[in-house]
Amino acid sequence: MSGKHGKFKRREIRDLIQNEYGLKVYNMHEGDKGILTYTNQGDKIFKKMKKDEAQLLFVASAYNHIKSKGFKNISALCKTLEGKYYTKYDGSLYVLEDSMKGKSFSITSEEDGRKIGEVLAKFHTAANNFIPATGSRAKVDWGRWIDKVKVQSVRLKKFKEIAESGTYSTKFDRIFLKYVDEYIKQAEEAYILLKNSGYMERVYMAMQTNQLCHKTFKKHSLTLLDDGDIFISSLENCSYDIIETDLVSLLESCVGTKSLAYLESVLQGYSSLKPLDANSINIIRALLIQPGRFYKIVNRYYGKKKNYNEYELLKKMERGIRKEERRKEIAKKLEEVMQ
């Protein structure tokens, strides 16, 4: 094992895992997701969590519920010998999560698109009717997008007034003013799409069935195994929400410029098990065109006015604009699919 943890720290972590979980650790090395740990009970990821005990119990309950419904290709949080889903190290909470060998999933064919669409539909079916363990603190995102998009539009207009007032005259201001009208228009269009596509009705339906969503159904959470199956992990941001939010995450992460042609196959795969209607597609379009990334960055500059590095924030905005443009391409392709 190499990386940011020194030899003493590595030995500490190895001993901690062996003592807390009763496992034999053969080897360890650091990766993007955490510390990959090879044990006598399979591969695990040891990672720091920015959550409290009640929030982690909610995540552990989600894993357990989905597995109990017959969805097997999903990770889980390991229990310590004391029956807890976490351990404490260096003043923080850590979890030990099941891992599998494989490569990051990507869509390079219609078959890939259909496969991942089907996997997500099966995941949503298994994640339905979820009631967490007693003592959990649930994460609930039902119905938030209407207000979020409305706030984006109002505040972007306010930020535009600030930038045009002459109070600021930086490169950040100039780039912001170049794009802000376009993103105000997109926020307003997203709001209308949500209102006209039965967004709140979908929310009420999801509430009636306690629909759980992954919330980061992206490449880093999807591992293609040697046998062709797809293994799902990184459920720590899961929450109660509508299924369309996971489809947005999947499309924006796995459907790039080169794989736009396979977008329809993703929807076909999903719809073969859980049919999507025009309202669902329009909700997905709305969530793709709302300029959330752009708004988050400029809100930090014009709104919160906390300490920030202007150069780093400028680079974040430039990256954010590129991502917004890619999302807009996906939304445009969705519109073509509907015609």
Automatic annotation (TrEMBL):
InterPro entries: CotS-like, Kinase-like_dom_sf, Spore_coat_CotS
GO cellular component: endospore-forming forespore
Keywords: Capsid protein, Virion
Cited PANTHER family: SPORE COAT PROTEIN I (PTHR39179)
Protein's UniProt name: Spore coat protein, CotS family
Lineage: Bacteria, Bacillati, Bacillota, Clostridia, Lutisporales
